[in-house]
Amino acid sequence: EVQLVESGGGLVQPGGSLRLSCVASGFTFDGYGMSWVRQAPGKGLEWVSSIPWTGNDPDYGESMKGRVTISRNNANNTLYLQMNSLKSEDTAVYYCVKVLYKAFDYWGRGTQVTVSS
How high is the pLDDT of residue 85? Predict the structure, then answer.
């Protein structure tokens, strides 16, 4: 059974940083690309970033580009998202997503990030 368990969310002040983690199990982690997708209150899903199985050449959505870094550790089946210079509009539930042929096929339950003073 595929499982994706996110952690690291919480309340942070504007300008602050957080690092999200996602521990994967139930599949060969180093064989798949992974992504982060978020959903702000009352809004639709927004793609944040993706990283191929190699960890090379990650890609970023425009809304957070330059403020986030995606990375992965294939040895411990973990995906990360380092977020800096956070803004109130970054408040959202952040989901870890497994990628299959450029489609999202498994989702974690998400971790809440709230940016507020």
Answer: 97
* Burial environment of residue 57 by CB neighbours within 10 A (0 to 12, 13 to 18, 19 or more): exposed
Helix, strand, coil distribution of the chain in percent, nearest 5: 5, 55, 40
d(CA 53, CA 41): 31
For 3, 47, 67, the CA distances from 62, given in Å and listed in that order, are 28, 9, 10
In sequence order, the β-bridge partners of residue 7 are 21
For residues 49 and 35, the answer to whether their CB atoms sit within 8 Å is yes
The label of the residue with tokens 């199985």 reads 53
10-63: per-residue pLDDT in tens? Answer: 999 999 999 999 999 999 999 999 999 999 999 999 999 999 999 999 999 999
